[in-house]
Amino acid sequence: MLQLPPLTSLRAFESAARHLSFKRAADELGVTPTAISHQIRLLEETLGGKLFERQPRKVALTEIGLQLYPVCREAFSSMSDAVAAVMGKTQQRAVTVTSTTAFSAGWLVPRIGRFTAANPGITLRIHPCETVVDLQRGVADCAIRYGGAPFAGLVAEPLFDDSFAPICSPGLNIRMPEDLKHHTLLHSEWRLQNEFTPSWRKWCKIAGVRDVDTRAGTVLTDESHVIQATIAGQGIALLSTVLVQDELRRGLLVQPFGPALEGLGYHFVFPKTATGNPGIRAVRDWLFSETNTGA
After folding, report:
1. Per-residue confidence of the chain (295 residues) as pLDDT tens digits?
2. Where is the HTH lysR-type domain (predicted)?
3. If DSSP codes are grouped into helix, strand and coil, which group holds residue 194?
């Protein structure tokens, strides 16, 4: 096997030869000029000849140094390109999408199997979070966001609009709005309040339902917990028809009556600088495939 000098010495030489300065090489490699000088002296001892002519305030390559430098430069350049290519392929195999806990659990997670089947070479990571994740910081690659458009610095593509309707377990046998008087109202504690925030007070006003104490009932801070409580028959809630579409289709939940309150829209967002990212493109195609099939 061919014996080579230590890689550390060759790296120190390549940097010093490129800059013609031990100090600038030390700054680039994060060491001291003395360490650079020591590595080059070890390399010179290994090769049996001087690589630099030490002159006042500068250095110059000797004939041996001029012969070795182009080879080292090309070798380190090739290694750098190869490492960058491998890292790029590795990064492309994983993509992280973030959204609220309720949307992640109720909509994304049940559909992961179809993403994996269509993209066997990509690992999909779900990052549930109740606060807006800065996609420029690398915590996640893309996101599903509710409302809030436009999104500064991001590409945003609308997925679907939401609505909120009275939803309950079929076991409660709720059939008419008047039945609300005899059942527990479940409330979600919304962090953001706006004209589209659903509430039983707003629903009863629009539906023309009176004599219902819209402040009574059970309040849960997480929307996904409200959904679980509704499935368990703990009461009736104003739920996102997007998040419970699977449960409605399977008969775990029913919408006994209307009307539905208008909600905001869900958007798929990602940084403008990541437009060509194959992982993000795969997530986008999967999401729109799911919305088109209505699955």
Report:
1. 457 788 889 999 999 999 899 988 888 888 898 999 999 999 999 999 999 998 877 889 999 999 999 999 888 888 877 776 666 555 557 899 999 888 998 899 999 999 999 998 899 999 988 888 888 777 889 999 988 767 788 899 999 899 999 999 999 999 999 999 999 999 988 766 677 889 999 999 999 999 899 999 999 988 889 999 999 999 999 999 999 999 999 999 999 999 999 999 999 999 988 888 899 999 999 999 998 744 4
2. 5-62
3. coil
Looking at domain 7-90, which of 1.10.10.10, 3.40.50.970, 1.10.3720.10, 3.30.1050.10 is its CATH number?
Answer: 1.10.10.10
Q: What is the CATH number of domain 162-263?
A: 3.40.190.10
Spatial contact of 204 and 237, defined as CB atoms under 8 Å apart:
no
Rounded to whole angstroms, how far apart are CA atoms 91 and 122? 9
**Helix (H), strand (E), coil (C) string for 45-81:** HHHCCCCEEEECCEEEECHHHHHHHHHHHHHHHHHHH
* The two structure tokens encoding residue 49: 């000849």
CATH class, domain 94-160+265-293, is: alpha beta
Mark out the alpha helices in 184-293 (DSSP H runs): 200-207, 223-231, 245-250, 278-293
- According to DSSP, the β-strands at 236-240 and 154-167 are antiparallel
What secondary structure letter does DSSP report for 110?
G
For residues 92 and 156, give the distance between their C-alpha atoms in angstroms, rounded to a whole number: 21
Supply the pTM of this predicted model.
0.63
Q: For the chain, what are the domain ranges?
A: 7-90, 94-160+265-293, 162-263
266: enclosing H helix or E strand:
strand 261-271
